[in-house]
Amino acid sequence: MKAVRIHATGGLDVLKYEEVSDPVCRDNEVLVGIKSISINFSDVLIRRGEYPYMPDFPAILGSESSGEVQQVGSQVEHVKVGDRVIVFGHPSYCTLAAVPATKVVPFPDNVDFDAAAALPIIYLTAYHMLHTVRRVQPGETVLIYAAAGGVGTATIQLGRIAGLKMIGLTSQDEKAKLIKEMGIDHVINYRTEPVVERVREITAGKGADLILDCVAGENFGDNFRMLNTLGQVIWFGIADGNPTTDLLKAIGRDPSQSYGVSMFHLFSVMKNPQLSAESFATLIRYLAEGKIAPIIYRKVPLEHAHEAHKILEDHENTGKVILNP
To answer: Containing domain of residue 215, as a range?
Structure first.
């Protein structure tokens, strides 16, 4: 089979398109011919050596894809040869994968492979931040960092289903146009507008009920100037590095506000098989019914994975970048 592997961390040149031995399907596994691969910024961080959970080298990158079942192990009952499946939580920059049966989820024929591959990480992340960590209520206001990115666009679609008011942060007029067309209520260009003041203006001085922050870094403390009473910040990314804010000082500045801070990683959901299965079923149903639709920014051949990584590093994309073998 063909695969994109890294043998060491570094720049785009460490992504190597190679011939690798075909995997062997064991009794508890499913052999999947990969049709579509969804990439994430975590892949970039792993390649650069900046991710908290690093693989052993040489490593095939990626963690979500879709394809057709080519073989099933003797212990596997929930899928059969020919089924269309999402592969989640398994290296994916490859043409063939032998995957534990617990990591494959069937999806219906009216959903295409690219949409299926793009579903797991961004929609599960958005769904569980809204409905598990926060348990949002209709009418609440959510501030979304990187609103035109993968998790951002997923949050907008799920937020509309939940009846939320949404404010999105972005840096480009083209991206702002996209998320406005998706139905977001307000857009703030963080490069040209004072974000804190604009959020307070939009919310009539109250602030947002929920802030979803995938950026963090030295400006993380600004979140506490934009929160409503009993508001919550969910920190789920490190695009600008770990927060440098003294959280106790920031929260304690006005204890009567009763702010909450949560850290979210999708691994926490994967540790709960029932919760994971229920939310997956909900999202696949939404996808099949047309209630959600992943935004696909560009499709790139697998052998040109370096081009896809550059798109993410340059923050060029609106929505997902897909690799096709």
So the answer is: 122-263
